[in-house]
Write a structure and sequence with these properties.
The protein starts with a strand and ends with a helix. Helix 15 crosses helix 17 (about 465-475) and helix 19 runs parallel beside helix 20. Helices cover about 35% and strands about 15% of the residues.
Length: about 725
C-alpha cells in the first residue's frame, strides 16, 4: 500500500483572511481519496498567511510563496496543492503560473455542481495544482465553497501523470543545481542474477543520484538479464524493508523488441524516474506507447545504425515528442565493440533540429572515451561495465565525474573541486590572450545566430555590438564561478538593455552555468531562456530586465548594499545608448555618485543606434563623458571591439587607495582607479559587428526572417 501524503498551502490578500483561515482549518488532516486501492493518504494544510492586515503586504507575495512551496515539494518527489483567495483573483493566478510545474486555475462561478464538475475535469486533464478564488465576486456560501474545494482535492488526478511531472521536475532541479556545469552521471546495472542486481542497486544509490538498470530479454540483442517481473519484485522487496526509499530514483533501459507489456508492469512505481525504449522495437507497440500515459518520463534509444530521421518517422516529425533521447555509442550486446564516432554527429543533428530535451549517451563510456564527447556535451552519461566491473565503483564514479568536468571546461576555465569556493581562474589581470578572446567572441556570435535561428526571430544587432565586451568579462575580467553561481565573493554582472541577452546566455552556457542544449529553447514556452532575462530562472543571471533604464538602478542598489556590508565585490552593469533617454538612468547615476560607489562600473555600449533609427535622429544625446563626469563619475572612452583597450580600461576601474586625476582619457596602458567615484567605460561599438551585411543598420535591431537568410548570415560569420 502506497502512503501518499498531500500538502495544501493556502494564502490570501487581507480581505480574504477569514475565508483563508476557514479553508485551511477545514482541510487540515482530512482524508485524501486517491481513487486507487493501492494508495491512501491524508491532507496537511499549511496557512501561508496573512494572519492580519499589514499595509505593506503585497498579496502577490503570498501567491509566490504558495507556488514556491508546491514547486519545491515536486522537486522532492512529493505531492502538494495550493488554494489562493483574493479580490479578482487575476493577480494571484498570473503570479502562481509564472513558476515551473505550477498549473493554477480559477474557481468557476455559477452553479456549485457545475463548478465541481469543471474542476474535477480540470484535475483529470491538466493536473491543476493551484485553485484561485475571486473573493470579491465569490457567489458561493462558505459551505458550498468548502464542498467545492473538498471535491477538487479529492478528485482523481492522474496518478501516473503526476509522477511523470514530479520526475521531470526532479531532472530539471538536479540539472539546475549549483554544479550545473557537470553532466549527469548514472550507472548501468546489468546482470541476470537477482542478488547481484540488488547488491548493485543498494551500493550505487549511496553515491549516485540516479541508478540506471538494463533489462534485456534477448529479442533485440544478445544476452539477457533479470526479467521485468523479477525487477518489480526486487523493488517491492527493497521498498517494503525500507532499504529503497521514494527518492531513490531509477532509470531503466529496455532492450526488447516488445516493450509494451513491460512498461505496463513498471507503470506507477514511484522510484522509476525514466524508461528508455528502443527505436528498433516493433512499430505497432511504439505507436501505442507514444500515445499512452506513463508515470515516468519516456525516452527513446537510438542504436548506431538508427538515424535521427528514423526517430522523426516514429514521432511523426515531432522533434520534441519526447523529453529524453539516448544515443548508443556501440551496438548493444556485442562484446568488444569500439566507440562509434557517428554518435557525435547524431547529437549535433538533434540539437540543430531544435531538440530541447535531455540527451543521454550509453555504451563505451569510460575514461578513454570521455574526451570524445567534448564537442557535443551530453546531458547524461550512462556508465555500465566500467562501474560494475570496478573493485571500487565509488572511486570509478568520482573519476568519471572529474573527467567530465575537465572536458566540459574551456581551456581558460578549470573545473573546481566539489566544495571549493575559490574564484574561477579565468579572472586574471595578466596573460591577456587576444587570439583566444577573438575566437571565443566569434563562437558566441555564432551561438547568438543559432539561438535566434531556432525561432527565426529575436534581437540580433545588439548582441553582436556588445559581444566583445561580454566575451572579455566572462573569460578574463569578472571574478565568477560557474560551479557555484551564488558564490559570495563573485563580481556581479547585470545587463540593463535586456534585449541583448542572447549573448549573455551564450557566455553563461559556454562557461558552464547551464547546458548548451538549453540555448536552442530561446523564447520558447516553458524555457528559462526568454527574450529578456529573468532573475531566479537562469543560473548566472543577476537581474531581470526588459524596460530600459532599470538595470542601472538595480546595479546601484546591489553596489550600495555591498558597501553597507563592507564587502569587496565589484558590480558591473552593461547599458545601451538608447536607454540614456530614460529618466531612471539619471536618478540612478546621481545616487551612485552621491554614495561614492567606487565598487560600481557602468559600461556604455555606444553604437549610436536604437530600435527605430539612429540616436541622433530619434533623440540626440549630449556628450556622455562630460555629463557623467559632471555628475561625479570617472570616465574612460575606448574602442569596444579592441580587447587590449577593453582589458586596460577594465583594470583601470579597479579601486585602489591612491589619489589622482579623474579625467576622461583613451586607454593604452592600465592605470589604477584612484578615487571613491563610480566609473563609466564608454565603449564605442558598431551595431551588428562581425556581420558586415548588417553592420550599422538599425533595421536589424529586432529581426524576423527566414531560414535562408539565417543560413546566409551563419555562412558569413563562419
Amino acid at each position: 500500500m502506497l502512503e501518499f501524503g498531500m500538502k495544501i498551502y493556502t494564502g490570501s490578500d487581507h480581505r480574504a483572511i477569514e475565508l483563508n483561515n476557514l479553508i485551511c482549518s477545514t482541510l487540515d488532516n482530512s482524508p485524501l481519496d486517491l481513487k486507487d486501492e493501492n494508495a491512501t493518504g491524508r491532507i496537511e494544510c499549511v496557512n501561508i498567511g496573512p494572519s492580519e492586515y499589514v499595509a505593506t503586504d503585497d498579496y502577490v507575495d503570498y501567491s509566490s510563496t504558495v507556488a514556491t512551496n508546491i514547486r519545491e515539494a515536486l522537486y522532492e518527489g512529493k505531492q502538494a496543492f495550493g488554494v489562493l483567495s483574493c479580490g479578482s483573483g487575476i493577480g494571484m493566478l498570473h503570479a502562481a503560473n509564472k513558476y515551473p510545474f505550477i498549473r493554477a486555475t480559477m474557481l468557476p462561478q455559477g452553479d456549485p455542481s457545475l463548478a465541481k464538475a469543471i474542476l474535477v475535469q480540470d484535475r483529470l486533464e491538466h493536473d491543476s495544482n493551484v485553485l484561485v478564488i475571486a473573493s470579491d465576486t465569490n457567489p458561493y456560501t462558505k459551505e458550498e465553497l468548502l464542498e467545492i474545494i473538498t471535491t477538487w482535492t479529492s478528485a482523481p488526478f492522474g496518478f501516473g501523470r503526476h509522477l511523470r511531472r514530479v520526475n521531470k521536475a526532479w531532472y530539471d532541479a538536479k540539472l539546475r543545481e549549483a554544479r550545473i556545469s557537470n553532466p549527469f552521471i548514472s550507472s548501468g546495472v546489468l546482470s541476470n542474477e537477482i542478488n547481484e542486481v540488488k547488491r548493485q542497486i543498494l551500493e550505487f544509490k549511496k553515491f549516485m543520484p540516479l541508478v540506471g538498470i538494463d533489462l534485456i530479454d534477448g529479442t533485440l540483442t544478445d544476452g539477457g538479464t533479470i526479467s521485468a517481473a523479477e525487477f518489480t519484485a526486487i523493488i517491492g522487496e527493497l521498498s517494503a524493508n525500507n532499504t529503497l526509499k521514494r527518492d531513490d530514483f531509477l532509470s531503466l533501459h529496455l532492450m526488447t523488441k516488445n516493450p509494451l507489456q513491460t512498461l505496463k508492469e513498471l507503470n506507477n512505481i514511484p522510484q522509476i524516474l525514466s524508461v528508455f525504449i528502443h527505436a528498433e522495437a516493433e512499430n505497432s507497440e511504439l505507436q501505442e506507447i507514444m500515445h499512452s500515459e506513463w508515470s515516468f518520463q519516456l525516452g527513446i534509444t537510438l542504436n548506431p545504425e538508427t538515424s535521427v530521421q528514423d526517430y522523426l518517422q516514429i514521432t511523426q516529425n515531432k522533434i520534441n515528442a519526447l523529453d529524453l533521447i539516448q544515443i548508443m555509442t556501440v551496438t548493444p550486446g556485442r562484446q568488444g565493440n569500439s566507440f562509434n564516432p557517428a554518435c557525435l554527429d547524431k547529437i549535433s543533428e538533434l540539437r540543430q533540429l531544435g531538440f530541447t530535451g535531455k540527451i543521454a549517451v550509453d555504451g563505451a563510456v569510460n575514461p578513454t572515451n570521455i574526451s570524445k564527447f567534448i564537442s557535443v556535451k551530453p546531458d547524461i552519461y550512462f556508465v555500465g561495465s566500467y562501474f560494475s566491473n570496478s573493485d571500487n565503483p565509488k572511486s570509478a564514479f568520482e573519476e568519471i565525474i572529474q573527467l567530465t568536468r575537465v572536458n566540459n571546461s574551456t581551456s581558460h576555465v578549470n573545473a573546481l573541486e566539489q566544495g571549493e569556493v575559490e574564484a574561477n581562474p579565468i579572472n586574471t589581470d595578466e596573460n591577456l590572450d587576444i587570439s583566444f578572446l577573438e575566437d571565443k567572441a566569434k563562437e558566441l556570435r555564432i551561438s547568438v545566430l543559432e539561438q535566434i535561428g531556432a525561432t527565426l526571430s529575436g534581437h540580433l544587432a545588439g548582441p553582436f555590438s556588445c559581444a566583445d565586451i561580454v566575451t572579455y568579462l566572462y573569460y578574463q575580467g569578472l571574478k565568477h564561478n560557474p560551479e557555484n553561481p551564488k558564490w559570495e565573493d563573485r563580481d556581479y554582472f547585470l545587463i540593463s538593455n535586456g534585449h541583448v541577452t542572447p549573448i549573455w546566455y551564450a557566455a553563461l552556457a559556454d562557461t558552464g552555468y547551464f547546458p548548451k542544449s538549453d540555448l536552442l529553447t530561446l523564447r520558447k514556452f516553458g524555457s528559462h531562456l526568454q527574450g529578456h532575462p529573468k532573475y531566479g530562472s537562469t543560473p548566472g543571471v543577476e537581474n531581470s530586465s526588459g524596460p530600459l533604464g532599470h538595470g542601472i538602478g538595480q546595479a546601484v542598489g546591489i553596489a550600495l548594499s555591498l558597501k553597507m556590508d563592507k564587502k569587496p565585490n565589484r558590480v558591473v552593469c552593461l547599458m545601451s545608448d538608447g536607454e540614456q533617454q530614460e529618466g531612471a538612468v539619471w536618478e540612478s547615476a546621481l545616487s551612485a555618485a552621491k554614495y561614492n560607489l567606487d565598487n560600481l562600473t557602468f559600461i556604455l555600449d555606444l553604437n549610436d543606434i536604437q530600435i527605430d533609427g539612429f540616436t541622433k535622429d530619434i533623440m540626440p544625446l549630449p556628450n556622455m563623458a562630460n555629463i557623467y563626469r559632471e555628475i561625479g563619475f570617472e570616465v574612460i572612452e575606448i574602442d569596444g571591439h579592441d580587447f587590449s583597450q577593453i582589458h586596460n580600461a577594465y583594470l583601470s576601474t579597479k579601486p585602489t587607495p591612491t589619489s589622482g586625476s579623474d579625467q576622461s582619457t583613451s586607454v593604452s596602458e592600465p592605470t589604477k582607479h584612484n578615487s571613491k567615484k563610480p566609473r563609466l567605460i564608454i565603449a564605442h561599438t558598431t551595431s551588428g559587428k562581425g556581420l558586415e551585411s548588417i553592420e550599422n543598420d538599425y533595421s536589424w535591431h529586432d529581426w524576423r526572417g527566414d531560414k535562408a537568410t539565417l543560413d546566409s548570415l551563419l555562412a558569413q560569420l563562419r
